[in-house]
Design goal:
The protein has 2 domains: 1-61, no CATH class; 66-211, Rieske [2Fe-2S] iron-sulphur domain (Rieske Iron-sulfur Protein), CATH 2.102.10.10. Helix content is 18%, strand content 24%. The chain contains 3 helices and 11 strands. It has helices spanning 2-8, 29-57, 208-211; strands at residues 69-73, 83-88, 98-105, 121-125, 136-138, 143-145, 152-153, 159-161, 170-176, 179-188, 194-195. Strands 1, 9, 10 and 11 form a 4-stranded antiparallel beta sheet that branches. Strands 5-6-7-8 form a 4-stranded antiparallel beta sheet, with no helix packed on it. It is elongated, with a radius of gyration of 31 Å. Bound molecules: FE2/S2 (inorganic) cluster. FE2/S2 (inorganic) cluster is lined by residues 128, 130-131, 133, 146, 148-151, 162-164.
Length: 224
Amino acid sequence: MADRRRQQKPKLTEDQGMPGAFEGETVTRRRAVTSSAHIFGGIAAAAFTLPALGFAMGPVFEKAEVGWEQVGAAGSFPMDTYLPKVITVSDGVGEIGRTTVYMRARNPQLDTEPEDEFNQFVALSHRCMHLGCPIRYVDASSRFICPCHGGVYGFRGEVTGGPPVRPLDRFYTRVRAGQVEVGPRYSVNSEFQRYSPRDPAQPLDGIGPYLYPSRPTIRKFPNT
Ligand code: FES
C-alpha cells in the first residue's frame, strides 16, 4: 500500500523544478523567507548584544599604566609610625583617581619579608580588604581601624580582627635621587608574600590565588 502511494506521487524532473518556484529558482520561497527571517533576527540580536558585551568586558582587558609618583624625601619617613600621603592611581579622572597611602620606612626588626629595592619603604593602601571602605591609622594603638564593619589591622597591615580576608594591599616603593617614589599596587597573603593586585574580599591564602586569579591583562611586576 505504501509502495503504491510512493509510486503515485509525481516525481519532478529537473526541467519541471520545484512546485511554486519560478524557473531557475533553487530554493522554495517558504525556505527563502524563513532563512531571511533568521538572518535578520540574528543581526538584530547581535546589534543589541555585542555593544552590551563589549561594555561589560572592556574594563577586564584594560591595561593599567604603571607610574611612579614622588611622595617625599627618603629621610622624612619614620619607622615607628605612618605618614598619610595622597597619590594618583588613575589619571584624567580628578579626585576619584586619587588615593591615600600610609607610609613609613622599613623596620628590619618588624619587616621580616625578603628585602629588595622595592620595599625599603612600606606603603599601605587605605582600602579595607573586607569590602573596600577607607581605613584609618590610629597612632595611639598602632592599628588600622575600618569604621564599616569593625575590621582591625596591626601595625604591618595584618588582620587582627573583624571580617577582612587578607592584609592591607601595598604599593611598590623605590628611591630615586633621594626621593621616595610610590609605584604599582600589589596584594599580599597572611605571610606577606606578594601577588598581583586583587580586589577586596578575595583571600590569598590556601587555594585563594586559584579561586581569585588576577585579571589576565594586569601588568605583572617583579615577584608577583
Ligand atoms: S569594609 Fe572594612 S570591615 Fe567591612
